[in-house]
Amino acid sequence: MTGKAAPKHYAPRWNNDTRPTPPAVGSEREILSAVLDWHRATFELKCAGVPPERLSERAVPPSGLSLHGMVRHLAGVERWWFRIQFAGENVPMLYYSDDDPDQDFDSLDGDVDEAFAVWRAECEHSRQITAAAASLDETGIRKRTGEPISLRRIMVDMIAEYARHNGHADLLRECIDGSTGM
Questions:
Q1: 151 CB contacts (<8 Å, ≥6 apart)?
Q2: What is the pLDDT of residue 1?
Q3: pTM for the complete prediction?
Q4: Which domains are present in the chain?
Q5: 10 Å Cβ neighbour count for 81?
Q6: Strands annotated E in the chain
Q7: Is 21 exposed, middle or buried (CB count within 10 Å of its CB: 0-12, 13-18, 19+)?
Q8: pLDDT per residue as tens digits for the range 32-82
């Protein structure tokens, strides 16, 4: 360490930012769980305060993405990886059918508050499944290939999924009302 002081200027933070900072030291499970929860909280923070009707706006043409569509997508991804792939639960996929695989983004006629409630419930299911696993080495079975996939890999993939969509949410939110922040 060179002993240099931290920079004086950081990226602006959101007002009312209550996200806990993930630990710098801890077990692999603690760190991965905390980083995933931080990304979940980041997504929710980027949507906070936007009127429900504006959450459905496709604000970055030509993209069809909206914050409403993304919360539906993330609820479906949580269910797919943790409940269906890892835990082997026999539950239907969310916002999906073989005839309309992009319902999460395309069919925004549902209630926005309900979509957030479904997403929060799926996040809680995912946390419970993660906490109940004896080890991150435990595996589920990939539905497409029949091959095993570890809880560790699922958590890393979910962190990447949220990081990608949080970047999309940044752009959408800025286009909706000019708000920016980390």
A1: 86, 130, 133, 135, 136, 137, 138, 139, 140
A2: 47
A3: 0.89
A4: 31-177 (1.20.120.450)
A5: 23
A6: 139-141, 148-150
A7: exposed
A8: 999 999 999 999 999 999 999 899 999 888 888 999 999 999 999 999 999
φ and ψ at 150, to 5 degrees? -80, 155
Q: What is the DSSP letter of 99?
A: S
- As a whole number of angstroms, the distance between CA 182 and CA 70 comes to 18
CB-based burial label for 8 (10 Å; 0-12, 13-18, 19+): exposed
Confirm if 119 and 131 have CB atoms less than 8 A apart. no
Asked if residues 92 and 75 have their Cβ atoms less than 8 Å apart, the reply is: no
Of 57-61, 133-137, 138-142, the poorest mean pLDDT is in 57-61
